Amino acid sequence: MTQPITLALSKGRIFDETLPLLAAAGITVTEDPEKSRKLILSTDQPDVRVVLVRATDVPTYVQYGGADLGVAGKDSLIEHGGQGLFRPLDLKIAKCRVSVAVRAGFDYAGAVTQGSRLKVATKYTSIARDFFASKGVHVDMIKLYGSMELAPLTGLADAIVDLVSTGNTLKANKLIEVEQIMDISSHLVVNQAALKLKQGPLKRIIDAFASAIPKV
Ligand code: AMP
Question: Residue 96 belongs to what H/E stretch?
């Protein structure tokens, strides 16, 4: 019997954009996560299953062996810290960027002059802290878990640090993207113990994913 493999994915863009990579490995997910509430999805390979977790939880599941491998955004990996994870591939999927945005009319340039203080709301506190520290800007960090766009509009914060893809969400909320912090894409992460214990099947999946990474 081959060893069972568990792959952690998050619903949405990461799930959708991982399907072609799985196809290259000869794996088809046989259930649609949008049509059911199941958190464990079967595939056409009896020894491969997919578990659906929050994007920010993918690194944790893989770190502690709840999944053998997973697909996680660089944003989630930085916030997690990456301990215990082998990170063999940038899959170049689910691309976006982390940016700073403010309310229209807010004097951002003035607010980030050396030695100033800025109230920043974000889910990405590590990324935001490092970025503003490198600019010499003191931040009062407000941790949020969603709807970050509301923070500057309600006076909760001066600025937000959030993922931006098309920019439509910022525009719809009359926010201005004032700085791009970093480009984001999703990476394949593998549990280090599983890499030794299930070397054959994991290497086949890693090699197949590598061969199917989108060209730019
Ligand atoms: P957009 O309106 O296309 O700029 O998308 C911005 C919204 O989608 C924000 O709420 C982001 O948090 C979210 N978002 C954009 N790209 C991604 C991604 N690759 N992964 C997860 N969330 C994303």
Answer: strand 85-103
Containing domain of residue 40, as a range?
Answer: 5-95+185-212
CA of 7 to the centre of ligand 1 (A): 23
Closest CA to 84 of 69, 101, 94, 103: 69
Query: Residue 97 forms beta bridges with which residues?
Result: 164, 183
Token pair, residue 183, equals 């480009």
Residue 35 DSSP class? S
Do 175 and 140 share a structural domain? yes
Express each pLDDT in 189-213 by its tens digit.
999 999 999 999 999 999 999 999 9
Could you tell me if 148 and 202 lie in one domain? no
What is the per-residue pLDDT across 111-160, written as a single tens digit (0 to 9) for each? 998 778 999 999 999 999 999 999 999 999 999 999 999 999 999 999 99
The answer to whether the CB of 185 falls within 8 A of the CB of 213 is no
Q: 72 and 145, same structural domain?
A: no
Residue to probe by mutation, ligand 1, list 90, 160, 163, 171, most atoms within 8 Å of CB? 163
Which CATH number covers residue 139?
3.40.190.10
Q: How far is CA 189 from the centre of its chain?
A: 12
SS3 of the chain: helix, strand, coil, percent, to 5: 35, 35, 35
pTM of the model: 0.95
Indicate if 61 and 115 belong to the same structural domain. Answer: no
Q: Is the distance from the beta carbon of residue 163 to the nearest atom of ligand 1 less than 6 Å?
A: yes
